[in-house]
Amino acid sequence: MENINNIVILTGAGISAESGVATFRGPDGLWEGHRVEDVATPEAFARDPDMVQKFYDERRAKLDAVQPNPAHQALAELDQKWPGDLLLVTQNVDDLHDRAGSQRLLHMHGELRSAWCLACGERSPFAGKMALDPACPKCDQFGHLRPDIVWFGEMPYQMERIELALAQCDLFVSIGTSGAVYPAAGFVQSARHYGARTLEMNLDPSEGSLYFHESRMGKAGDLVPVWVEDLLTNV
Ligand code: APR
Description:
Radius of gyration: 18 Å
Bound molecules: adenosine-5-diphosphoribose
């Protein structure tokens, strides 16, 4: 474990699966029941805003019924105790990392519990139903809120900060992501290019599995706490 100071961790839907949040791909995945083009693009929102709002309202409402699992908790513990630099980049729009207590956290694909007002441009914490066209908490105008979610065809948040962290990290760890969606799927190659060691923890080999120095296959709730304990023992 020597020479590790800066860590970048990427998480995907797999880390929240054991909490009961649906993943995207695979037999019971969200994209089996919905067409991406119908609910997760700016074009879909322009065409049928009500349907898109209801899709995200339903997913937002489900957050009340789920809790962080041991994988989220272990990453929060690592964040609290790791003396070096650490950045947790999540593709997840749930708030389970936040609720577990992770601080050095970035939601690159947005957040269900955030609203983006297309009238004033501001983002605000949001609970409830956007399909009811509530007023923006910042500018009080009605009917201009959209889910603060990065849809297909849109630019993920804070890419410059992520690229810088990848360039400076000694260890890149990917957890519970299929590696099907760029730019996140390319982070492992960037990190390797800059000399980082790379580790993946996933139920099945991801699409980019061959780019990792090490792959551990299994459930995040089993693998992540063991990995964190190991890392902290050697600090
Ligand atoms: N532990 C670890 N990994 C798991 C678990 C688990 N308990 N359960 C499932 N997985 C793995 C699956 O094997 C799969 O490889 O998690 C991965 C989930 O993949 P996806 O459903 O494709 O989710 P993700 O990679 O986060 O998707 C990326 O795609 O639709 C967009 O914007 C959306 O952020 C999302 C992006």
